[in-house]
Design goal:
The complex is a heterodimer of chains A (109) and B (346).
Chain A lengths: L4 E4 L3 E6 L2 E6 L5 E3 L2 H9 L1 E5 H12 L3 H17 L3 E4 L5 H4 L11
Antiparallel strand pairs in A: 1-5, 1-6, 2-3, 3-4
Chain B lengths: L2 H13 L4 E5 L23 H14 L3 E5 L9 H10 L3 E6 L6 H9 L4 E5 L5 H8 L4 H14 L4 E6 L8 H11 L2 E5 L19 H8 L8 H5 L12 H4 L10 E4 L5 E2 L11 H10 L2 H7 L22 H6 L8 H14 L1
Parallel strand pairs in B: 1-2, 1-7, 2-3, 3-4, 4-5, 5-6
Antiparallel strand pairs in B: 7-8
Helix pairs in contact in B: 2-3, 2-11, 8-14
Classes of the chains: A alpha+beta (109), B alpha/beta (346).
């Protein structure tokens, strides 16, 4: 699972609001708000990056110990994948087919 | 409204993030509804490039909910290009339409875009009543067919109805009909004045006794407040209690309206231009002194309302009050609704 590629579902709307990702699952109206680390994972989930690679970035950027980052990233990704918000695949995902768009991750405010 | 959305709204209000933007792409319409609030259906429209630039700017400003409407938005030949860009920018898009121009192909294209919802106006379960309101022959048949097509294509559809003398007796059956089609249902008990201040159309609305009677229909028992107010899209008229904090409504705090020509208003019902989103641009208009003046108003500024016993059921609209002459005065249409709702809920 850790070598799986992670992408964002196209069946969501998402926006960074005051530094925090807010994700709306369009079919169910379920709303998710992510903390700083979760928001960064969302940003990194471009369909071409694996869970392992994401965990490494979290370890580097947030000063989280590598084993902890690996476990936390995997748990987070699996949880959102179970909700249909993130997608996991053995092969890279086509960003045009799965992504909610490039404006997901940034908010210049 | 779910608590998590209340919290997001509260944060957006605090940080002045335009979480919900209502964008009318055109005021042109193929229907001629008797209760329409638009004074005319002409006027300039932003070009495709201007609309696309605007929605890019809105994405950067933090807008999540984008309500695209008109007039009839499907009259814009670039509608799908705009919707595609909006979805690529990850907005939750609600399309408001009369549905009459939605064929199988259009329904399929809309479904492929993963819109959040399509709102379709339907004023009765009876064709003759609906068509007399829209003044467009066979519009009922075409709107109903559109609802069926959209739902079959996998989209969420909400039937939007406005209570008037012409259709008040049909409200329960219209609700049942919407449900039988697989759509959700919203009921607006208020016919609003035209944007130019002409109040003649409000005569089409119900008086207090009629409103009490209509809102007492058994099908509304326990859900009347939800059907008349709440929504999973935070529009100006359903400011969550948690975010209220003495604000008059969400207009200018975390929601706003953009006209087809690009004028930025705090709300469609509050047509005070705060600048044009093309020039000087959305950011400047959103941060303008005119918008700040609207933001500065608080419930405590409302001498006529602040001690009112009906506040708990009131959805006072500052725009409707303004059309009666005073932004901080009474909105008698909301007084009427709050009185009727208080009776029904109690």
């Amino acid at each position: 699972m850790s070598s799986s590629y992670v992408g964002r579902s196209g069946a969501v709307a998402a926006r960074a609001i005051d530094g925090q990702m807010v994700i709306l699952q369009l079919a169910t109206s379920a709303l998710f708000t992510l903390n700083r680390v979760g928001s960064r994972i969302w940003e990194l989930a471009d369909g071409r990056t694996t869970v392992d690679q994401i965990a490494r970035r979290i370890h580097e950027e947030f000063e989280v110990e590598a084993p902890v980052a690996a476990l936390d990233a995997l748990e987070f990704v699996e949880r959102l994948a179970a909700q249909g918000v993130l997608l996991l695949s053995d092969a890279p995902l086509n960003p045009d087919r799965h992504s909610g768009g490039e404006a997901n991750a940034t908010n210049p405010r | 409204m779910p608590q998590i959305l209340d919290e997001v709204c509260e944060k957006a209000a605090r940080r002045r993030i335009p979480l919900t933007v209502h964008l009318d792409l055109t005021w042109r319409c193929n229907a001629h509804c008797i209760h329409c609030y638009l004074p005319d259906h002409e006027g300039g429209e932003m070009t495709t490039a201007q609309v696309l630039r605007l929605i890019e700017e809105l994405a950067g400003a933090g807008t999540l909910f984008l309500l695209i409407s008109g007039g009839e938005a499907l009259l814009r030949p670039d509608l799908f290009e705009i919707l595609e860009r909006a979805r690529a920018l990850s907005f939750a898009v609600v399309l408001k339409t009369n549905g009459t121009l939605i064929d199988d192909q259009a329904a399929g294209r809309l479904a492929g875009l993963n819109l959040y919802r399509v709102d379709v106006s339907l004023y009765s379960h009876r064709a003759e009543v609906h068509d007399a309101i829209t003044r467009l022959p066979v519009s009922w048949q075409r709107s109903v067919r559109a609802i069926q097509r959209l739902i079959a294509a996998g989209l969420k559809v909400r039937v939007v109805n406005v209570l008037m003398k012409a259709n008040a007796g049909d409200a329960a059956a219209a609700h049942e009909f919407a449900r039988s089609l697989g759509a959700s249902y919203a009921l607006d008990p208020t016919v609003t004045p035209r944007l130019d201040g002409d109040r003649t159309v409000t005569n089409l609305g119900l008086d207090l006794d009629e409103l009490r009677s209509a809102l007492s229909e058994p099908f509304l028992a326990g859900v009347v407040r939800d059907l008349c107010e709440a929504d999973d899209v935070p529009e100006a008229n359903d400011l969550p209690r948690a975010a209220r904090n003495g604000l008059l409504c969400s207009a200018g705090h975390y929601s706003c309206y953009v006209s087809p020509s690009g004028e930025l208003f705090p709300c469609i019902q509050l047509p005070l231009s705060c600048g044009n989103v093309c020039e000087p641009g959305f950011k400047q208009a959103w941060g303008s002194q005119d918008m700040e003046a609207i933001r500065a108003l608080r419930l405590n500024d409302l001498e006529d309302c602040k001690g009112c016993a009906l506040l708990a059921t009131c959805t006072r609209c500052p725009g409707l009050a303004l059309m009666e002459g005073d932004l901080t005065g009474k909105s008698t249409l909301d007084c009427l609704k709050a009185t009727a709702l208080a009776t029904v809920i109690s």
